[in-house]
Amino acid sequence: MTNSFLRFRHTGSFIAGLLIGISVVALALAMGADPSNGQTLWVVSAPFIFALGLTLQVVVSAKQQHRCTTDPEAGASPIGFPELGHER
């Protein structure tokens, strides 16, 4: 894979999946643990980790807009008006 954008999409998708998974596991482990100061930190930070992973996944999977960079055919109008039958 020499395309850097494709490599970013694969790596970004992997990291987003990791963040989403870590947030779910952290929340599950924190809810099952004994109440302590650390538990509150994990319960509060898990939704932020989830939102970060979800945002990264949306950014990575968003369809890239391609601009038409090819030259139109010779004599072709850049605006495509259809030719009407009675004008021939």
How would you summarize the topology of this molecule?
Layout: H1 4-32, H2 37-61
Helix pairs in contact: 1-2
What does this entry show, briefly?
The chain is built from two helices and no strands. The protein has 88 residues and is an all-alpha fold.
Task: Summarize this structure as a short list of keywords or feature phrases.
61% helix; mainly alpha; single chain; 88 residues
Description of the molecule:
With 88 residues, the chain is mainly α. The chain has helices at 4-32, 37-61. The protein is elongated, with a radius of gyration of 25 Å. The mean pLDDT is 77.
Radius of gyration: 25 Å
Largest sheet: none
Order of helices and strands: HH
Q: Indicate the multimeric state.
A: single chain
Uncertain residue ranges: none
Shape: elongated
What is the first-to-last residue Cα distance?
52 Å
How many β-strand runs? Answer: 0
Mean pLDDT: 77
Strand content: under 5%
Q: Give the count of helical stretches.
A: 2
Structural class: mainly alpha
Helix content: 55-70%
